[in-house]
What does this fold into?
Amino acid sequence: MDQDHRFEQALRQYIIGFVLALALTGVPFALVAWGKLPGSVTLLFVLLCGLTQMVVQFRYFLHIDFTQQKREDLLLILFSTLLLAIMAGGTIWIMTNLAHRMH
Amino acid sequence: MKGEAVRHPGINLGDDHGEAHSAAETLVFGFWVFLMSDLIVFGLMFATYVTMLTPNSFAGGPEPKDVFNLGSAFAQTILLLLSSLAMGFAGLALRYKHSVVRMNIWLLISLFLGIGFLALEINDFRDMIEMGAVPSRSGFLSAFFGLVPLHGLHVTAGCIWIVIMLIQLRVFGPNTVVKTRLLRLGLFWHFLDIVWIGIFSIVFLGGLA
It folds into this structure.
């Protein structure tokens, strides 16, 4: 009985996550297909939707949140994200800067 | 799930699974270390791809607008999302000790959706190669074929992993080893869908916006 209740709760989490992910997929695709907004506005919106959907999937499919995680697990994920942000952000910054100078 | 001790990120088996629940703690943590290093690999492939979007890198060859197919990218996205959801349901069937048959069905659905995704993706690659957009044509295409098929390769590995788990479920039944492997398979599959969000946002939508 208690187990059934827990299952339904957990199931609801997946359904919520799925519906949110579907919306966050459909809207950017529709915007690009529509193609009436300026490119940079569309791009910004696409990236925002993408980031939001990553958070949604981490939260609802991988069950990561800030309240009930064990400390080292959360640290692992946050530290990897930080490393990635430094390396990917730094690469893009430096290389696009170089590309501009080459013109 | 609130109130019970959470031993690792991702769906937890829970105390009623006894030994498997405690065994999962270190195994799943180790798998997260792998996932996060894989995330760094993908992230740097993304960084390389983005730096290859300048006019110089197209080398007079095809540009993103010429080679990407929005409809196909959308279909692939939906297939992978549904597959990820089916894998989530398989995880729930495992966690709440539903019948093995139910778990098998969700795993099979997840597998077929994954194969459908791969079929569409391979079809797209073939179209690109036919129009002369081969990896050696330009820096942009090299980076594209480094990033997107790398994800496809992961999905292929995941499909093989699902088949292996279906066999192990049949041979061994849901014992401790099989259960903790299924937990890690679920994490891997959800992780691949998260990487795909980056791919469709940056590569396909970014290229066509």
About this structure: The helical segments of chain B are 19-51, 55-58, 64-67, 70-95, 100-130, 139-172, 176-208. Chain B touches chain A through 53 residues (CB under 8 Å).
